[in-house]
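Supplementary notes (optional reading)

For those who missed the lab, this is the record we used. Protein: Tripartite tricarboxylate transporter TctB family protein. Length: 162 residues.
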Amino acid sequence: MRIKSQKDFFAGLMFTIVGAAFGFGASTYTVGNGARMGPGYFPLMLGIVLAILGAFIIFESLVVETEDGEKIGSWAWRPLGFIIGANILFGLLLGGVPKLGIPPMGLIIGIYGLTFVAALAGDEFKAKEVAILATVLAIGSYCAFVLLLKLQFPVWPSFIAG
């Protein structure tokens, strides 16, 4: 069988692998049933749905004819590096690095760092727009996670909050 759409084939393969991994990981928890869901119920169902969706997309990529075969282009290394780097920076800023003596900078500083570094992944960088976005995300995250969900993690740098 010939692959008629490379993009769809590899996207479906990724969905199937991630779905199977979620399903396998969820099987170590108590699953329960629809009426009394355990902690593994939602990840298991999500994994199954994702794997089925991936299988359907793979099937479609083998059956539906496309004009140019929808070839996969080259890797976009620069955006990939900035997005992964932004997430790593967020984790480091949120929790600090005690072994290196770097204190936790908190949620607000972490979100600003994440937003500014992730914005560098795009073709255009407008500092004013990124600052507005970071402010909205910081306020929204503070309201959602600290005020509403009452999660306990540093909001401000430890040398400011005490």
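If you only remember one thing from this example: The two ends are 64 Å apart (CA to CA).
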